[in-house]
Amino acid sequence: MRKPSDKAAGLSPAERTRLWREERQRLGLVKLELWVPPGAKADIQAAARSIITASSRGPALSRNPDPPQGPFQMDHVIDTDWSVKSLAQALSETRLLRDGELTARVLEGSEPVLQITMHEFGDLPIFLSVGAEQIVVSALMWPVDEQKDQAAFNVFLLKAQKLVPLSNFGITTVAGRDYYEIFGELTCKTTLQTVIIELRMLAENAIRAAEDLRENFAAAA
Predict the structure, then answer these.
(1) N or C end of the chain: smaller count of CB under 10 Å?
(2) Does the pTM of the predicted model rise above 0.70?
């Protein structure tokens, strides 16, 4: 799997969005916008997720024709908790990933963390930690002090997170500075396939949030 570029590591949310769009276009995907009644929103989102999941196995996105096999595939580890290191090993060996889709490395510390670079999303970094009962995956968005009208935006964010499937928003402190973050949670007893789906969904939501949330907030203000 390819290594993340140094240039991409410092990209802004807008630049990551541009790279993400270019990657979608390179894969032959097209953007569709739907206007639906409020009551149909949940059904449309569920149908869209089903279509995306099914299409990810097709030729447009899947570059590996070999079916999953080996020790770290769909149904590996359901009764045994994952650890950061076992997940790093599993991601390096699995055939469930597309060629060059991501790079994972363990960041050692008092509590090890897995840094996952999502190459198809502008080298977006995602951080994965494993606790006693759950796996948490998260991505930083932008510094809180760069957000205009923070109090109003925070209320807007809490209301808007229902529209972002399978992810939540929060604020975390990194090196003494507060950042907005997007995160998802999984049980420690889950399949590798589910972990990979969560990583892809979080990356997708992080890119969408960087573009749509601020624009929608500005329009509503």
Answers:
(1) C
(2) no
For the chain, give every domain's residue range: 6-31+63-220
- Closest C-alpha to 103, from 186, 215, 3, 219: 3
Taking only the tens place, the pLDDT of each residue in 147-161 is 989 999 999 888 887
User: Which tens digit of pLDDT belongs to each residue from 120-176?
Assistant: 999 999 999 999 889 999 999 999 999 989 999 999 888 887 777 778 999 999 999
Residues contacting 185, CB < 8 A, separation 6+: 134, 135, 136, 137, 168
Q: Which CATH architecture has domain 6-31+63-220?
A: 2-Layer Sandwich (3.30)
Other C-beta atoms closer than 10 Å to the C-beta of 212 total 15
CA distance 62 to 59: 5
